[in-house]
Hints:
- By secondary structure, this protein is an alpha+beta fold.
- It contains five helices and six strands.
- Strands 1, 2, 3, 4, 5 and 6 form a six-stranded antiparallel sheet that branches.
- The termini are close together.
Amino acid sequence: xxxxxxxxxxxxxxxxxxxxxxxxxxxxxxxxxxxxxxxxxxxxxxxxxxxxxxxxxxxxxxxxxxxxxxxxxxxxxxxxxxxxxxxxxxxxxxxxxxxxxxxxxxxxxxxxxxxxxxxxxxxxxxxxxxxxxxxxxxxxxxxxxxxxxxxxxxxxxx
Length: 158
């Protein structure tokens, strides 16, 4: 149990799936979320031609926001900045949710706002890092949420 477990894997292995880690703000005022998000993300258009779509879920209301020209790393960093600014202005606590269905369900509750981020293609990882730098914490998950239990189980090895 003293030794770390390491695994070397080719990220292009078909069995590895990159899944987004969504942001959900609990206990917040969701009334102005759509307008504020549209203004925030509109001002971030980058020079590139890539377009990403963020699904915004505020209580019972759902909408999409198209963001152009940002790498995946820059998009995730922008989503994090929006969540931090929104929760600072309207209250609430940010949590990081694995799984699209779970994030939609949690964001659909009263007083909750969720930014459901798009899935990243594996081929975008290194170009994004080269253009925008390192990804922010909790950017994406390798594998589905249900498989994360193994990380927790391994920590219990004594």
